[in-house]
Structure formats: C-alpha cells, structure tokens
C-alpha cells in the first residue's frame, strides 16, 4: 500500500534518474566546448567576466548573449543552473572536473545541464576574421521580399534563440565574419549579412515601417525597433576607432 512518503521517494527517484541523463546542449554560432565541466572559483576562471543570473538560462542563450556582448568576448560559461558568464580569456588553465559534477539542470531547459556549484561548462568562440575596431551605425529601413531581397547576394542568414537582442547579435555575428552590412528581417526573427550591402534596386522606406516589430535589447526590459514583415532594418559598420 502506498503512503505519500513512499510516493515522494519514488517521484524523487524518477526525477533524479531522468536528470542524471542530460541531453547534450545545442552549441550555436560555430562555438565549441573545450571544457565540459571545470572548476570555477570566487575570482573567476574568466578574465573581464560579466555574469548574468537568469531564471530562463539555456546553453545556446548564454552563448548567443556572450557572442553579442562584445567583439572580444570569446568565452561563455554556464554554472550553478542559472548563471551565464561571459569573458575575454581564461584567467588560468582550468582544472577539469568529472562531468557528473555538472549536475544542475538549466533554469530554462531542465533536460540540459548548466554546471553545478563552482562547476562551469566552458564554451569558446571560433577564430574569426572580423575587425574589432568598428562601430555600427543605422543604415535605414528597406523593402525585402523573397523575389526582391534588399541585400546583394550572397546573403548569410542566421536565426537566434528568442528573448535575446537580435539587432546586436546580428551586428556582432556579421562583424565576427568580417562582413560590413547587417540587417534584421522577417519581422525581427532573422539576421542577414551581406559583404557588399544594399542592392542597387533596393527601395528605402520611412523608419516607421521598421517599427512594426520590437525586439529585446541586452538591457533587460528595454525594447528596440526591429523591422517588420518584408522590411529589412539595416546597420553597417565603419572602421571608426573610438579609442
Ligand atoms: C587546480 O588545482 C590545483 C590543485 O588543487 C590548484 O592549486 C590550482 O589553483 C587549480 N587551478 C585552477 C585554475 O583552478
Ligand atoms: C585595432 O585598434 C588597436 C588600437 O588602436 C590596434 O592596436 C589594432 O592593430 C587594431 N586592429 C585592427 C585589426 O585594425
Ligand atoms: C540586385 O537586384 C536585381 C533585381 O532584383 C537582381 O537581378 C540582382 O541579381 C541583384 N544583385 C545581387 C548581387 O544580388
Ligand atoms: C510583427 O511583430 C510584432 C511584434 O514584435 C507583432 O505585433 C506583429 O503581429 C508581427 N507581424 C507579423 C506579420 O508577424
Ligand atoms: C555586462 O553586461 C551588461 C548587459 O549585457 C552590460 O550592461 C554591462 O555593461 C556589462 N559589463 C561589463 C563590465 O562588461
């Protein structure tokens, strides 16, 4: 006969059994995982670290956040179930831990592990050719349809996890690849990069037509304009060095 205590033990055993077999994370943007589980410490394994605590943490979300947050941010790490760390370099060669110590589910994706207490899963960006000394400026709002794309071909397209900053992600995604023109398309859900930028026959339209979709920014709670259906919201970079 079951009593509620026995039932609780059985449910906990089932949950533990499920959680002990995490699904490998999806690793976007050509990043890779040099350290599946390593030791972190109070002064942090990353240099110039920036930590975000989130109740919706996922591995791809953390990588995309770090990728978008600066040209020189080349490391991302998830830890303690709800922390995303972005850094420029490793502060020291990490001590590897057994992957069984990275046993905390991600707060936004319970089937994937996101480190553990002082245990971090470390991801690294690919070596990319882009120029770090740039600033992005608005290039305008353009009509963009499958038959009349605003950008010259070839166009590299990329989508990102929802709830992150598509405009900055897209600018940094293109910059990392050495591409000078970035645009947000399909009502703010798709990023496009084009080396030569706008096609000679692209039609410019008023900015208001790129206010139909609003996207989050890197600053929680804030929104920015993000294009519209059949509208491309364009940014381009200059080699202006602010330093
Ligand atoms: C690695 O472990 C050794 C021995 O415990 C310790 O002295 C060292 O500081 C650790 N290094 C890192 C980067 O965690
Ligand atoms: C970027 O600017 C820094 C500082 O002015 C300079 O040392 C570096 O060579 C520049 N890099 C490129 C790729 O232009
Ligand atoms: C520019 O647009 C024209 C007309 O849509 C098209 O025929 C041409 O292929 C485009 N050029 C590039 C490089 O995409
Ligand atoms: C575009 O996105 C906005 C909000 O970001 C939404 O209100 C609108 O319905 C979307 N339009 C289409 C055609 O998907
Ligand atoms: C950390 O990231 C937040 C949001 O992405 C940003 O506002 C802040 O300036 C960053 N801090 C550092 C030290 O990079």
TrEMBL record:
Membrane as UniProt keyword: yes
Membrane topology per record: Single-pass membrane protein
Listed Pfam families: WSC
Subcellular location: Membrane
GO cellular component, one term: plasma membrane
Membrane listed as a keyword: yes
InterPro entries (UniProt xref): Kremen_rcpt (IPR051836), WSC_carb-bd (IPR002889)
Domain WSC as annotated: residue spans: 31-126, 135-238
UniProt keyword terms in alphabetical order: Glycoprotein, Membrane, Signal, Transmembrane, Transmembrane helix
Predominant localisation class: membrane
Signal peptide (UniProt feature, chain positions): 1-20
Superkingdom field: Eukaryota
Name of the protein this chain belongs to: WSC domain-containing protein
């Amino acid at each position: 006969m079951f009593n509620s205590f026995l039932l609780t033990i059985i449910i906990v055993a089932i949950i533990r059994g499920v959680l002990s077999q995490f699904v490998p994370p999806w690793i976007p943007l050509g990043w890779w995982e040099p350290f599946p589980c390593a030791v972190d410490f109070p002064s942090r394994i990353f240099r110039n670290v920036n930590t975000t605590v989130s109740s919706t943490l996922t591995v791809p979300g953390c990588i995309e956040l770090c990728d978008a947050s600066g040209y020189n941010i080349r490391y991302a790490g998830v830890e303690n179930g709800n922390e995303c760390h972005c850094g420029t370099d490793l502060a020291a060669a990490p001590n590897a831990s057994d992957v069984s110590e990275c046993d905390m589910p991600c707060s936004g994706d319970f089937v994937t592990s996101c480190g553990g207490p002082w245990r971090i899963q470390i991801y690294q960006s690919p070596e990319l050719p882009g120029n770090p000394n740039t600033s992005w400026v608005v290039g305008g709002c353009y009509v963009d349809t499958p038959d009349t794309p605003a950008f010259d071909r070839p166009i590299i397209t990329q989508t990102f996890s929802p709830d992150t900053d598509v405009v900055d992600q897209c600018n940094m995604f293109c910059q990392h690849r050495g591409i000078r023109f970035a645009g947000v398309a399909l009502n703010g859900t798709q990023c496009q990069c084009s080396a030569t930028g706008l096609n000679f026959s692209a039609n410019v339209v008023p900015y208001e037509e790129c206010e139909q979709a609003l996207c989050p920014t890197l600053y929680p709670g804030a929104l920015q304009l993000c294009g519209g259906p059949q509208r491309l919201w364009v940014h381009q970079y200059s080699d202006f060095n602010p330093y």
